[in-house]
Every structure is written in C-alpha cells, then in structure tokens.
C-alpha cells in the first residue's frame, strides 16, 4: 500500500475535491505523514522508506487530512439558516488550528509502528498514556 492520495481524501469526504482543495490536500498529506513520523519519533527518511505502509497508518492520515479540509482554520463553529432549515457545526479548539493528530491518533500510530506491547517513542508520551493525561 502507498501513502494516501487526493483520491483517498475525496473518497473519505464522499465528494469530488475542487482544484483548490486538491492543492490544499497535497500539502496536508505531506504534513500528515510528517506528523505521524514525528509522533513515532521518526524522520522524513523513515516515512519515505516505509514499504509497505500499514493500512492503519494510512487511515490515520486520511482522517487527519479530511478533518483539516472540513474544519476551516481558526473557525470554531459555523451556522447556516435557510427558511425553517438550520444547520450548525462546532469544531474543537484543537482542530481549529489546521492539521493536527489527536492524542488518540498519536498513540495509535505508535502502537502500529512499535507494536502493542511496547512503550511510546518518548518519555512524555509514556507518562501521558500511563496516567491518561491527554
């Protein structure tokens, strides 16, 4: 399996990406791969050399990019009303700042890379998991 592409993002969002979103998704995919590598204490060379890419890691990246495209940067909520129809969405503060992995996604990435029975890549991560500080 290869790293996710714009096609994977479009499939996850269940729609065709606009030209601007395709360009945005390209950058966000690079950022998401880097975020996964960083969460695992690895570098970009590790990410480029990883073959095959575990499907679960690809899933984390797809979710992070789809979330970043769906939640505009800096926006905490949106609302629209048309006659009697009303729709509103709220985004967590953490997700209002662009592409970020959630703490659960970081833990999951480390489990995928290091195995379920090993600790995390960094001491603070071990303490966060041990005491559920995240």
Tally of DSSP β-strands: 2
Q: How much helix is in the residues?
A: 40-55%
Indicate the structural class.
Answer: mainly alpha
Helices and strands, in order, run as: HHHHEEHH
Distance between the first and last residues' Cα:
31 Å
**Tally the helices: what do you get?**
6
Low-confidence stretches: none
Shape: globular
Query: Within the largest sheet, what's the order of strands?
Result: 1-2
The biggest beta sheet reads: 2 strands, antiparallel
Assess the beta-strand content as a share of residues.
Answer: 5-15%
Instruction: Indicate the radius of gyration in whole angstroms.
Output: 17 Å
Average per-residue pLDDT, rounded, comes to 81
Short description:
With 134 residues, the chain is mostly helical. The protein is built from six helices and two strands.
Task: Give a written overview of the molecule.
The chain is mainly α and 134 residues long. It contains 6 helices and 2 strands, in the order H-H-H-H-E-E-H-H. The protein has helices spanning 6-13, 19-39, 44-49, 55-70, 103-114, 123-131, and strands at residues 77-82, 85-90. A hairpin with a 2-residue loop joins strand 1 (77-82) and strand 2. It is globular, with a radius of gyration of 17 Å.
